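Continuing from the previous page of notes. For each protein in this section, the sequence appears first, followed by its structure tokens. Read the first protein now.
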Amino acid sequence: MSNTNPDRFVRTHLKTRHLVLLVELGRHGSIFHAAEAAHLTQPAASKLLTELEYALGVQLFERLPRGISPTWYGEIMIRRAGAALAEMNAAHQEVMELLSGLSGFVSIGSVMTPSMNLIPQAVSLLKSRHKRLHVAIQVDTSKILIQRLRAGELDMVIGRILDSESAAELNFEPLTDEPHSLIARGKHALAQRKKLTLNDLAKEAWILPPNGSILRDRLTSLFLSHGLDQPVETVETLSLTVITSLLMATEMVAALPEDLIRTYLDAELLTVLPFDLGLRMDAYGIVTRKQHRLSPGAQAMLDILRELAVQDTDK
């Protein structure tokens, strides 16, 4: 029977072992392998899962011929279980930090542009004030980073909130937007053209971000809205090192913020092609979870990011 009293469910039925098992079931898609990872026997894992489904009154996983797959209810429980365990790990970390002075672990995610300027500045300032803090930085698309933030795997993200479901759980403090230019090697043949058309660019080889990123979607829309096919010759990557190396060594083109590659532009290794893509990304900003208290170390990082944002605004 479904238990409609959430307080009773948490206090009476839910155990830490349930949370650990849910997370491992989400990772492995197999009761056998999840039981191993959770240090349980398979019968014990099956019993815990049955207890959860009975207490909630819903099926959390579909039993398949080979493995299991989470239902919508199961996906919710997996995500919330991961966040709950992350909260308890954070609580333990905070206690240890208070015992030993401000130290510990800060995990921050960032989209590419702020990872090249804002994040290094923030980390440098943070380490000058709190040398014992360990900082982990993940660079990826906003979609993936927000998923990790909601799951409790990151303390904060410098990126964008792309869907209304996430927005209800998150705080967003805007920083700036990202105008993108068309970039190629310094002596690219197109750099000498007085007038470029989108049809010309559709025939070029492109370096693109992965599917699902906001820039990829807008580039796709740009070509489609002009009745053009997508470029045929493409390379997908988010690595700035790979992008700049490919641009300098080939005739490929890419859409990038000029600030991201200012050093290469000043050295004339790369150039801005004479075509206005008309692409401005939505503002990225500092994203944190609502109703979540950051550890002292993570709060110190957040304060520094805000401090640098104010300095940038005042320039």
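Done with the first. The second protein uses the same format. Note its length before scrolling.
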Amino acid sequence: MSAPAPHIPVLLDEVIHSLAITPGDEIVDGTFGAGGYSQAILAGGARVYAFDRDPDALSEGADLAGRSEGALRLYPACFSIMDDVLMADDIMSVDGVVLDIGVSSMQLDRAERGFSFQKDGPLDMRMAQDGMSAADFVNEADEADIADIIYRYGEEHRSRRIARAIVAARPITTTAQLAAIVRKAVGHKPGAPKDPATRAFQAIRIHVNRELDELTDGLEAAERMLKPGGRLAVVTFHSLEDRIVKQFLRRRSGAESAGSRHAPMVGSAGPQPTFEKADKAIRPSEAELSRNPRSRSATLRSATRTHAPAWATGGLAA
């Protein structure tokens, strides 16, 4: 049996170019995963501080860290607290931060992790492998809460019908069970371009892992850690994530007021822009799409840190 092909992260060349790495730079890889970005950053002569909450990713990255002769440090933590973790390690600022938001191929391809309905497995979906699982949520949450989560995070307009079917079918223990319930609830036509279970699975996974909160907190943490002139690069995979990054960079660059007609900013000054105008969004080339169909929804947004102090947490957050 041949060995599996090595994991190549989405938009790798574009991400490395956007970070503008020079030898000796210190870069945070906030989503280590299979280590693809970290390896490319190390090849550019930089030091890497890599974060991941998945114990499997950290275990499998130990060999790369050992071979890096100290240039790669692995941190078993969420990237949303990168500033607290790094400052405790006497690292007060960095030259770049890269975040690849979403589920890694490593997690999707392993049935026992319960992220995908392509292979039957326990209904888990926990990136950190602790806390509330997807099974806990679908079996214990109120029908209204399930509907709300599927609508909000899956942008699924048939969420009430799906939630009603989930509650009626409990207990649910496997990915195949949940997928079948969703398909029956909404009327699945074999051969349709998109499986109707996709949105529900996405929503439940986002909820279980607090992914959008992590992203918002992580953007603020990156803002606090980046040096003037430091680079932020974020790859997202669906509209909810991309909207958060886009709005964050628009606000932080001064392109969009942090106030609104309902709650206008008091006074005329306001906080100074912490990022220069964001670079043009980049999406995968046709060549990458042919190599890696999972890249089809990816978007890279990047920007350069200014000298202005980081904004206060909360209130003015994205």
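What the second structure shows: Strands lie at 26-29, 47-51, 72-75, 94-100, 226-236, 299-304. The two ends are 48 Å apart (CA to CA). We return to this in next week's lecture.
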